[in-house]
Fold this sequence. Notes:
The chain is an alpha/beta fold. It has helices at 71-86, 102-112, 135-146, 228-238, 255-262, 288-296, 329-345; strands at 6-14, 20-21, 30-31, 54-64, 92-96, 118-122, 153-158, 161-163, 169-170, 179-180, 188-191, 194-197, 242-247, 270-277, 300-305. Succinic acid binds at residues 14-16, 32, 65-67, 98-100, 123, 125.
Amino acid sequence: MQAFNKKLLVLGMGGTIAGRSQAQGDNVGYRAGELPVESLLPRGVNDVECLANVQIETRQIAQMDSKDMDHATWFVLARAVLAACADEAVAGIVITHGTDTLEETAFFLSQLFTPSKPVVLTCAMRPATALSPDGPQNMVDALCVAANPSADGVWVVAAGAVHRPTQVAKVHPYRTDAFSSGETGPVGVVEEGRLRWLHPAGGNSFARTPSTAASRQFEGSSNLGPDANALLARLESQGLPRVEWVVSHAGVTPAAVTTCLMAGGEGGAVRGLVLVCTGNGTFHQCLTKPLRDAEACGVWLRRSTRCTQGSIVVGATSVDWPVAMPLDPVKARIALSLDIARHDLAGLTPQATAPVPG
Ligand code: SIN
């Protein structure tokens, strides 16, 4: 009987990595989230040097196309990750996930808490039934990172690269190297099962500019440590505070703000708006009044940029709304939602009422 010295847990969420097509050569006409997570472990995975004595357990958390990801599923996953992190027998966790919202799930987990062991999200661009699937190698690479004690924190591993959740984004709809960390590049690479850091690892926190009256920056998403359970319990009972985008574009009208704030439906009143700004954090002048009205009614505002590289550079005299630095609009929405939830939990702010659009 094989003697194991380490246990890794693989949590299955579905995605193309678990996708199945009718015709074997079809890389696009397939259904995501079809094959059980245990079938995604390549045969002979324990032959890889760093996995030689590693026991790999699997658990199916969801079986979905990640375009349909919802907050409730995030909370179920987060519970499973928190439990595995608290379990001394588990050395690291791999999460198999669809590529379409992988960066959102990774960012959500990384901002909920800073794990003391590796939590590695991986994926595939080709279904498991492809003639040459990319999932098996991604799975092996992710397992190798999860088995590496220097990799504590949340990471995305795809196409041989290790990315930080704060930086990574899906940038291509078809290529197998579909993810990019933009101008910072990946934080590491996996080569023949060996993890090589390109930058100092240092967990998932990222540089924050201290806030000043004139230049309010992204302040939230601190390491919650033991409070992660309390925050998650609140999210499970109350949901994530609703945050929507307002995109500034040629021809935009004030209705972009007012209709958004009046929207009913699931998720309750809109508590926050992320302004998807032009260029260096600017927005159409016609949005100023409805945004000020919204702020006066207690709606939280953050600015992000439509630019796909760099982040907003704030001047010393800037008086506009805080910048979600260095987050893209997708992650800025999650960060703001978690900040509102955290403030609610701490009893720092009263429940904002739905603003009356002016
Ligand atoms: C999905 O996101 O679940 C489908 C697409 C993919 O995984 O590449």
